[in-house]
C-alpha cells in the first residue's frame, strides 16, 4: 500500500467514525445519509485521480450554492443546527472526492473534526465515548501519516512519485503512534477533569434528549400502565444514604409521583392549582408541607439519593419516596452558571414538582419519613376529617354502579375504624382477584366490569376499586401513580428503577398521620430475574451509562471541586483536610480554603517541594556527568571542543559555524607551523565523529592535539 | 524611512537609552493598578505579593530597554540563552489554534462537557506537539559545510551534517534552514531527514536560490522539526556568520560572439602548443598520448616518437564593462532608482559573465575591466572564479571610472559590453546589436 493510499484510507475512516454518532442520534433524515454513503464510496474510487479543473470549479460552485441554500432553508424553518450539520456532512463528502495532496488531507481531517463537534452536540449517549476513543486513535495516525506525506511531498518537489507506506512506517512506528494516541486520550481526560467549569451562559446549556413518560399528566385513562410492564427503560437510579435500615425492602420501595382526586367513571383527573416553592429548612433541605404535620417522634428518617433521567411529561414530577419529609439538590451551587438551576414546588394535593429547564438529568436527596405508628395507634384514629378534605377526596361519580358501595359495605362495613376498613379492602382485593397486565377493553364501567365480571386486572383497576370503595365508606382516599421496586446493579452499586415498575396504589387520609399508603394489587407472577450474559451485559452497560452521565456529560464545578478536594485530601494532613459541602457559606468556604494555604506552609510540603526542585536541578547534572564519561561520541566531542578552544587561542577565526576542516584549511593557508598535524588530527576526528569507522586511539589524538597546542600562535 | 518630525515631550525628556514598548506600557499600567489596589485593600497580602512580582518584572524586562533594534518580546525570549527555541505556526497550526479558541468559547458558554472533551483533545494535541518536537530537536549536533560561492538564479545546496546524540530516542522529521538577515529575500527549500536514530548521523541539504548576484551574509542556521502533526515548527536557532558570494548567471548563449572573436587569432606562435599544425617530432615520454605516436618514424627507427603541434598566437582579450551614457545616474533616498535600467544593467553583467566564461573555456586569456575593478588577463578555472567574483561584487551604482586595460602585448582585443544598451563591440566593431 502506498503512503498516499494509507492517508486516504485513514481520512475516510475518520469521516466515517465522526459521522456514526450523528447517524445514531437520528437528527438527520435518511436521504441525507444515502447521499453521504454514496459520496464516500465514490470518493474512495475517485479521490486518487486528478480532476479536470472544470470539475473542481463546478464542485466549489455547488458547495457555495449549498451553503446559501442551507442559510435560506434555516431562515425558513429555523432548524439551524440540523441544516448546518447536513451542509457540513455534504462538504466533507465533497472533500473526500479529491484527496491528492497532504493539504487536502489536512482539510478533510479538519472537516471530520467539525463533524465530531456536531456529534458531541447531537449525541451525548455513552456510545459517544466509543466513537471518541476510536476517533482519537485514528486522528493520531492520520495526522502523523499526513505529516509524513507532507514532508515527502516537500522533498520530492511535486514529482508525482508514489512511495510505499512500509518504507516510512514500520511496526514500531505504528506501535509508537498507537501509544501516542493512548497518551493523548489520557491527556484529554486529564484536561477535561481539570479545565475549570465556569460558564458564562451566552449559549444554551447542555441538554439531553428527554424521554416521554406516561401516567403523570393531569388526566389519565385507566389501563395504560399495563402496557408499560415490559419496558426496561430506566427512569431513575437510586443510592441509599443514612437510615437505610428503616426503609422497606427494595422490592416494596415506592417512589411517589402524582395523585388524582376526581373520578368520572372512566378516567382520573386532578385539579389545577398553582404550585408554590418549598420553604428552605436545615442542611440545605427544603421542607415538604403535609397536613397534618408529622411530629418527629412519629417517624424515622432515611435519605435516598435519586438521579432522575430527563423525562418529558405534562407535569415535571419530582419522584419521592413515601413519605416525603424534605428534599435537597445534590448540586446547586453552580447550576445558575450553567442555566440549569431548578426549584422544588408543591401543589394543593401536596404533590411535588420541579420548576426549571428540562433536557438535563436531575439529582437530589430525598428524606423519607418511615412511620413508627403501631396498628393499635392507627386503629384508634377516629373518622374525623376536615370539610375541605371530605369535599375533595370523597367524590364519587354519579353513575357509580351501586354494587360497588354494597361490596364495600359487605367487605369492610363491619370494621370499627377506617384503618381496619382499608386493611379489609386490601385483603379482599388481593385474595379474591387476579392480576393481569391485559386491559379490560372497551366497557361502559371498567371498575364494575373488573369487580363483578372479569375479576382480574392490573394496579390501576385495583387502586381505583379500593379508592371508590373507601370513599363510599366515607374515608378520604386517592390513587397515586409512581414506581414500585428497583433492580440492584452490582456493577454500579445502585438501584435502577425502570419504566416497567410504574405502579398505582392508594393513599387514605388519617387524622394525626395524614396520607397513608395501601396497596390492594396482588403480587404479580414476576419471572425470576434473568442472570444470563445479556442481562449481565445490560446491567454493566447501565452502570457505565450512569457513570458517563454523572462524570462526563453532567460533570460540573461541584463535581470538579469534589475531585480537586479528594486529590488534595489524599496528601493533606488530618487537620488540613478540606470538605466543600454544597451548603457552605462564603465565610465557611474561605475558612476551608485557608486550610489549603496552611498546607502550603507546612514543613512537609516545603520539604517535598525543596526535594523536587533539587531533583529537577540535580538530575540533568548527574546525567550529564555520567553521560560524558560513558559515551564514545561525547569523548570525541569534548576533544573537538578542546581543539576549537586551542585554535581560538592561537588566533584562528573560530565562530559557531566554522567547521574543523575549514579551520584546518585556514591553518594551511595562513602558514600555521603545525598545519600538517592539525590537518591529520581533524581528519581523524571527523572520521571518528561522523562515520561508523572504529575510533582512533585516544593517545594518538592527544599527542596530535598537544603538538598543535605547543605551536606558536598565528601572527596578528 | 527617516522623518523630520519634531521630537515629542517624552522624546526630549526621557533618559537616554530608555524606551517603552507597547508590552511594557501595558505591564506598567497593570502594575500601577495593582499598586492602587494594594493601597485600597491593605489587608490582602496576595495583592502586595502580586505588586512586588509585577514591579520586579517591569524592572527586569522593560525599564532597561535601550534603543536597540526592535524585536518582539517573544522573539527575544525564544532566542535567549535559556530558551533557545523558536516556535512558528504552519497553516494547519493556525487553523488548530483558531478552532481550539472557538471550541473553548463554545464549551465555556454552553457548559457542554462533550465539547470540553474535544477541547481537551485539541489541547492535548498542542501539548504533545510541543513535547515530541522538543524530543526531536534536542541533543542534535550539527556542523554546517556551507559553500562560499553560489550562482544567482540557481539552487545551491547548503549541507549540514547532523548527529543524534540522544541515547535512545530517534529524532524525527528534522529539517534545516539557512538564516539570512530579515531584509534579504531568497527562495529556500528546507533540507529534510525523516528519521535519525539515536547515535546516527546524516546530512541535511537546504536548497537556497539567491535571486541576484552579490555578497550575502548568512547569519545562522535553524534546525527544526514539524513532527509529529505539522501544526508547529519548533526550531533551535544558532548564530553563525558565513559570507556567500553569489556569482552572476553565466549561461547566456554567446557562442556567436566567441566565434566572431576567435577569428583574428589563427597566427602561428612558433612554439609547441595545442594548435592544429604539425610542429616537430620528439621521443615519446611517459604520459604522452598514444594517439600522438608517429608510426612511420617507429617503423623506421623501432623507437616510439610522438608528434608535436604548433601553438597559436596568444589569445588574449579584455572584456570591458562600461556605460556609454555620459554620467550614470545615482540612486538617492529621495529619488527612486530606475528599475528597468537596473535590470538591464544586471543583464549586461550576466552577458559579460557568460562571455568571460565561454572565452576562458575556449582557451582565451581574459582580462576584466569594469567600474572600480580591473583584472589582468589570465586563463583557467582560477581566472574564471576571479572574474565572476569581481562581477558578482560589481557595484552598478558606483560612479568610479572604468580603468583602461593595460596592453602588455601587441595583439590584444578589447571587448566592450555596454551596461545600458547591452551592445558588444570588439575594437570598436559592433558584434552584437544590444537590446532590441
Tag the structure with descriptive keywords:
heterodimer, A: about 725 residues, alpha+beta, 8-stranded antiparallel β-sheet, 5-stranded antiparallel β-sheet, 22 helices, elongated, B: about 425 residues, Immunoglobulin-like, 4 domains, 6-stranded mixed β-sheet, 10 helices
Topology (SSEs and partners):
The complex is a heterodimer of chains A (716) and B (436).
Chain A: H1 3-25, H2 30-46, H3 53-77, H4 80-96, H5 102-122, H6 127-156, H7 171-194, E1 211-212, E2 219-221, E3 234-240, E4 254-259, E5 262-263, E6 267-269, E7 276-277, E8 279-280, E9 286-287, E10 299-308, E11 311-312, E12 320-321, E13 324-329, H8 335-338, E14 343-346, E15 352-355, E16 362-371, H9 375-379, H10 387-393, H11 402-412, H12 418-432, E17 434-435, H13 446-454, E18 456-457, H14 459-472, E19 477-484, E20 487-489, E21 494-498, E22 502-510, E23 514-518, H15 533-553, H16 557-571, H17 586-600, H18 603-630, H19 632-649, H20 660-669, H21 675-690, H22 698-710
Parallel strand pairs in A: 1-11, 17-18
Antiparallel strand pairs in A: 2-6, 3-10, 3-21, 4-12, 4-19, 5-6, 7-14, 8-9, 9-13, 10-16, 13-16, 14-15, 19-22, 20-21, 22-23
Chain B: H1 9-13, H2 22-40, H3 45-62, H4 73-78, E1 86-89, H5 91-110, H6 113-137, E2 140-144, E3 149-151, E4 155-164, E5 171-179, E6 187-189, E7 191-196, E8 201-209, E9 214-225, E10 232-247, H7 255-262, E11 268-283, H8 295-301, E12 305-312, E13 316-322, H9 339-361, E14 365-370, E15 373-378, H10 380-392, E16 413-418, E17 424-426, E18 429-432
Parallel strand pairs in B: 3-10, 13-14, 13-16
Antiparallel strand pairs in B: 1-10, 2-4, 4-8, 5-7, 5-9, 6-8, 9-10, 11-12, 14-15, 16-17, 17-18
Helix pairs in contact in B: 2-3, 5-6, 9-10
Amino acid at each position: 500500500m502506498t503512503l498516499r493510499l494509507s492517508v486516504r484510507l485513514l481520512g475516510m475512516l475518520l469521516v466515517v467514525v465522526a459521522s456514526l454518532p450523528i447517524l445514531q442520534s437520528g437528527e438527520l433524515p435518511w436521504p441525507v445519509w444515502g447521499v453521504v454513503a454514496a459520496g464516500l464510496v465514490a470518493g474512495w474510487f475517485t479521490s486518487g485521480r486528478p480532476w479536470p479543473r472544470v470539475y473542481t470549479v463546478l464542485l466549489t460552485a455547488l458547495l457555495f450554492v449549498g451553503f446559501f441554500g442551507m442559510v435560506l432553508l434555516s431562515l425558513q424553518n429555523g432548524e439551524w443546527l440540523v441544516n448546518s450539520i447536513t451542509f457540513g456532512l455534504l462538504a466533507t463528502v465533497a472533500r473526500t472526492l479529491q484527496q491528492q495532496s497532504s493539504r487536502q488531507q489536512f482539510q478533510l481531517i479538519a472537516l471530520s473534526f467539525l463533524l465530531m463537534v456536531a456529534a458531541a452536540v447531537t449525541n451525548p449517549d455513552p456510545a459517544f465515548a466509543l466513537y471518541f476513543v476510536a476517533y482519537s486513535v485514528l486522528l493520531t495516525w492520520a495526522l502523523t501519516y499526513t505529516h509524513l506525506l507532507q514532508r515527502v511531498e516537500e522533498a520530492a518537489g511535486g514529482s508525482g512519485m508514489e512511495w510505499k507506506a512500509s518504507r516510512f512506517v514500520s511496526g514500531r512506528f505504528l506501535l509508537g503512534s498507537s501509544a501516542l494516541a493512548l497518551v493523548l486520550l489520557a491527556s484529554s481526560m486529564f484536561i477535561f477533569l481539570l479545565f475549570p467549569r465556569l460558564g458564562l451562559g451566552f449559549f444554551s446549556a447542555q441538554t439531553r434528549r428527554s424521554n416521554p413518560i406516561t401516567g403523570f399528566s393531569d388526566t389519565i385513562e385507566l389501563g395504560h400502565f399495563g402496557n408499560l410492564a415490559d419496558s426496561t427503560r430506566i427512569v431513575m437510579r437510586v443510592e441509599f444514604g443514612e437510615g437505610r435500615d428503616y426503609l422497606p425492602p427494595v422490592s416494596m420501595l415506592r417512589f411517589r409521583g402524582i395523585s388524582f382526586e376526581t373520578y368520572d367513571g372512566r378516567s382520573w383527573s386532578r385539579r389545577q392549582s398553582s404550585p408554590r416553592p418549598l420553604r428552605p429548612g436545615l442542611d440545605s433541605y427544603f421542607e415538604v408541607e403535609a397536613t397534618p404535620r408529622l411530629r418527629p417522634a412519629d417517624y424515622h428518617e432515611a435519605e435516598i439519593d435519586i438521579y432522575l433521567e430527563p423525562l418529558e411529561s405534562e407535569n415535571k414530577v419530582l419522584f419521592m419516596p413515601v413519605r416525603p419529609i424534605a428534599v435537597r439538590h445534590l448540586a446547586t451551587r453552580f447550576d445558575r452558571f450553567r442555566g440549569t438551576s431548578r426549584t422544588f414546588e408543591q401543589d394543593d394535593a401536596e404533590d411535588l414538582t420541579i420548576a426549571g429547564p428540562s433536557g438535563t438529568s436531575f439529582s437530589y436527596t430525598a428524606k423519607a419519613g418511615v412511620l413508627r405508628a403501631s396498628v393499635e395507634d392507627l386503629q384508634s384514629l377516629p373518622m374525623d376529617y376536615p370539610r375541605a378534605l371530605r369535599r375533595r377526596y370523597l367524590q364519587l361519580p354519579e353513575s357509580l354502579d351501586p354494587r360497588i358501595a354494597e361490596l364495600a359495605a359487605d367487605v369492610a362495613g363491619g370494621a370499627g375504624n377506617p384503618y381496619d376498613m382499608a386493611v379489609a379492602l386490601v385483603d379482599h382485593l388481593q385474595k379474591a382477584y387476579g392480576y393481569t397486565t391485559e386491559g379490560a377493553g372497551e366497557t361502559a364501567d371498567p371498575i364494575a366490569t373488573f369487580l363483578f365480571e372479569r375479576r382480574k386486572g392490573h394496579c390501576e383497576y385495583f387502586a381505583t376499586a379500593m379508592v371508590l370503595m373507601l370513599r363510599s365508606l366515607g374515608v378520604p382516599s386517592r390513587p397515586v401513580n409512581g414506581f414500585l421496586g428497583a433492580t440492584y446493579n452490582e456493577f454500579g452499586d445502585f438501584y435502577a428503577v425502570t419504566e416497567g415498575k410504574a405502579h398505582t396504589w392508594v393513599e387514605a387520609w388519617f387524622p394525626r398521620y395524614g396520607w397513608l399508603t395501601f396497596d390492594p394489587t396482588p403480587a404479580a407472577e414476576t419471572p425470576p430475574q434473568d442472570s444470563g450474559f445479556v442481562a449481565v451485559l445490560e446491567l454493566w452497560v447501565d452502570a457505565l451509562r450512569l457513570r458517563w452521565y454523572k462524570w462526563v456529560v453532567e460533570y460540573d464545578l461541584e463535581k470538579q471541586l469534589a475531585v480537586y478536594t479528594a486529590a488534595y485530601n489524599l496528601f493533606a494532613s488530618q487537620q488540613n483536610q478540606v470538605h466543600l459541602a454544597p451548603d457552605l457559606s462564603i465565610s465557611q468556604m474561605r475558612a476551608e480554603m485557608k486550610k489549603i494555604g496552611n498546607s502550603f506552609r507546612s514543613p512537609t510540603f516545603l520539604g517535598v517541594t525543596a526535594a523536587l526542585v533539587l531533583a529537577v536541578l540535580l538530575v540533568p547534572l548527574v546525567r550529564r556527568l555520567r553521560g560524558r564519561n560513558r559515551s564514545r561520541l561525547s569523548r570525541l566531542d569534548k576533544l573537538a571542543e578542546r581543539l576549537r578552544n586551542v585554535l581560538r587561542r592561537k588566533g584562528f577565526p573560530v565562530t559557531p559555524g566554522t567547521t574543523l576542516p575549514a579551520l584546518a584549511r585556514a591553518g594551511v593557508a595562513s602558514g600555521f607551523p603545525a598545519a600538517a598535524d592539525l590537518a591529520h588530527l581533524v581528519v581523524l576526528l571527523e572520521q571518528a565523529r561522523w562515520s561508523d569507522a572504529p575510533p582512533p586511539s585516544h593517545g594518538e589524538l592527544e599527542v596530535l592535539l598537544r603538538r598543535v597546542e605547543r605551536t606558536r600562535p598565528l601572527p596578528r | 524611512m527617516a522623518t523630520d518630525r519634531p521630537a515629542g515631550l517624552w522624546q526630549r525628556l526621557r533618559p537616554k537609552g530608555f524606551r517603552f514598548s507597547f508590552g511594557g506600557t501595558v505591564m506598567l499600567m497593570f502594575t500601577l493598578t495593582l499598586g492602587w489596589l494594594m493601597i485600597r485593600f491593605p489587608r490582602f497580602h496576595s495583592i502586595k505579593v502580586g505588586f512586588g512580582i509585577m514591579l520586579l518584572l517591569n524592572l527586569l524586562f522593560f525599564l532597561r530597554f535601550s534603543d536597540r533594534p526592535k524585536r518582539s518580546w517573544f522573539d527575544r525570549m525564544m532566542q535567549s540563552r535559556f530558551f533557545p527555541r523558536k516556535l512558528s505556526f504552519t497553516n494547519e497550526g493556525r487553523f488548530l489554534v483558531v478552532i481550539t479558541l472557538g471550541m473553548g468559547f463554545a464549551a465555556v458558554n454552553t457548559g457542554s462537557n462533550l465539547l470540553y472533551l474535544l477541547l481537551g483533545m485539541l489541547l492535548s494535541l498542542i501539548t504533545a506537539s510541543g513535547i515530541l518536537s522538543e524530543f526531536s530537536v534536542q541533543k542534535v549536533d550539527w556542523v554546517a559545510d556551507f559553500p562560499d560561492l553560489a550562482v544567482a538564479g540557481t539552487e545551491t545546496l547548503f549541507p549540514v551534517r547532523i548527529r543524534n546524540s540522544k541515547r535512545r530516542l530517534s529524532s524525527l522529521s528534522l529539517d534545516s534552514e539557512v538564516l539570512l538577515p530579515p531584509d534579504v529575500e531568497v527562495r529556500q527549500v528546507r533540507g529534510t531527514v525523516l528519521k535519525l536514530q539515536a547515535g546516527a548521523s546524516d546530512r541535511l541539504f537546504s536548497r537556497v536560490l539567491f535571486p541576484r548576484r552579490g555578497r550575502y551574509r548568512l547569519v545562522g542556521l535553524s534546525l527544526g522539526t514539524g513532527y509529529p502533526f505539522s501544526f508547529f515548527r519548533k526550531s533551535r536557532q544558532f548564530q553563525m556568520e558565513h559570507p556567500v558570494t553569489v556569482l552572476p548567471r553565466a549561461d547566456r548563449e554567446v557562442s556567436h560572439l566567441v566565434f566572431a572573436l576567435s577569428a583574428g587569432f589563427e597566427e602561428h606562435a612558433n612554439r609547441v602548443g595545442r594548435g592544429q599544425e604539425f610542429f616537430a617530432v620528439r621521443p615519446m615520454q611517459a604520459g604522452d598520448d598514444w594517439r600522438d605516436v608517429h608510426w612511420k618514424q617507429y617503423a623506421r627507427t623501432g623507437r616510439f616518437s610522438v608528434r608535436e603541434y604548433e601553438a597559436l598566437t596568444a589569445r588574449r582579450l579584455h572584456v570591458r564593462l562600461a556605460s556609454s551614457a555620459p554620467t550614470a545616474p545615482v540612486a538617492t533616498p529621495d529619488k527612486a532608482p530606475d528599475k528597468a535600467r537596473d535590470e538591464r544593467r544586471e543583464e549586461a553583467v550576466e552577458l559579460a559573465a557568460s562571455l568571460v566564461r565561454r572565452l576562458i573555456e575556449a582557451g582565451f586569456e581574459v582580462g576584466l575591466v569594469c567600474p572600480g575593478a580591473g583584472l589582468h588577463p589570465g586563463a583557467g578555472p582560477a581566472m574564471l572564479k576571479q572574474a565572476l567574483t569581481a562581477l558578482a561584487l560589481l557595484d552598478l551604482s558606483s560612479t568610479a571610472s572604468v580603468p583602461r586595460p593595460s596592453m602588455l602585448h601587441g595583439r590584444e582585443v578589447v571587448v566592450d559590453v555596454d551596461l545600458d544598451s547591452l551592445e558588444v563591440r570588439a575594437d570598436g566593431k559592433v558584434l552584437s546589436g544590444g537590446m532590441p
